[in-house]
Amino acid sequence: MRRKIAAGNWKMNTQIQNGLDLAQAVLEGERPNHVHIIFGVPATHLAHVQAVVRNANQVFCAAQNCHQAESGAYTGEIAASMIAAIGVQYVILGHSERRDYFGENDQLIAKKVKTALANGLHPIYCCGEKLPVREAGTHIALVSEQIEEALFSLSEDDFRKVIIAYEPVWAIGTGVTASPEQAQEMHYTIRQMITGAYGQSVANDTSILYGGSVKGANAAELFAQPDVDGGLVGGAALNASEFLTIINAL
Ligand code: PGA
């Protein structure tokens, strides 16, 4: 069975001490045992937050990016092996901010996904359309293409290690959330695609998260959808009690 996951994407926010305080406050909060919690933290925080979550039940740390090469002359970049070496198990890849501001495309992200997997990391693969695409009614075709390009050349074993996050770009950081029906439609479509590529059992076991202005107030209705297995949460994950409300909605 697939996991219920509440993943926080802290982006380029928090200094180390308030980041640690935030992680600690979530760890100490009331939360259900069946929910996996993942903190996607800035690179400078990884080892520190990893040390905090290491012995916690069902709580993990994620990097927000990695390079596609194994190592080498890539000033400023971080290798998947370096992330794995400090015990971190997840990496967010293909976030729309990486696509928009750093020119990442599906081909590049596909390479990053492969390198992450080769180093034992679980990719949290982000996909999602921008507003004009949604308005043109071609959102399903676009997201299908993103998923196919980046993920469907993986072996079944590797694909099983991937978490998918559907994040409509028009909903990220805007306060506008996809309706539960819009989220469900896309998540259902993604699961159908996975069934087509890898079969029913893999599709049933794949966690598909929704991201884009998830908050305490809207989490329950999104998570009530049969194909929404959790959230990738930006702004609301920076506040422990808000994030705990989201966690408890799963
Ligand atoms: P948001 O960000 O929750 O602040 O909209 C989500 C994300 O970018 O992962």
Topology (elements, then pairings):
Elements: E1 4-9, H1 16-28, E2 35-40, H2 46-53, E3 59-63, H3 80-85, E4 90-93, H4 96-101, H5 106-118, E5 122-127, H6 131-136, H7 139-151, H8 156-159, E6 163-166, H9 180-198, H10 200-205, E7 208-211, H11 216-223, E8 230-233, H12 240-248
Parallel strand pairs: 1-2, 1-8, 2-3, 3-4, 4-5, 5-6, 6-7, 7-8
The protein binds 2-phosphoglycolic acid (PGA).
Task: Give a description of the structure.
α1 (16-28) runs parallel beside α2, α7 (139-151) crosses α9 and α11 runs parallel beside α12. The protein has one domain: TIM Barrel (Alpha-Beta Barrel). The relative contact order is 0.16. The chain has helices at 16-28, 46-53, 80-85, 96-101, 106-118, 131-136, 139-151, 156-159, 180-198, 200-205, 216-223, 240-248; strands at residues 4-9, 35-40, 59-63, 90-93, 122-127, 163-166, 208-211, 230-233. The two termini are 15 Å apart. β2 (35-40), α2 and β3 form a beta-alpha-beta unit. The protein has 250 residues and is of the alpha/beta class. Bound molecules: 2-phosphoglycolic acid (PGA). Residues 9, 167, 172-173, 211-214, 232-236 line the site of 2-phosphoglycolic acid.
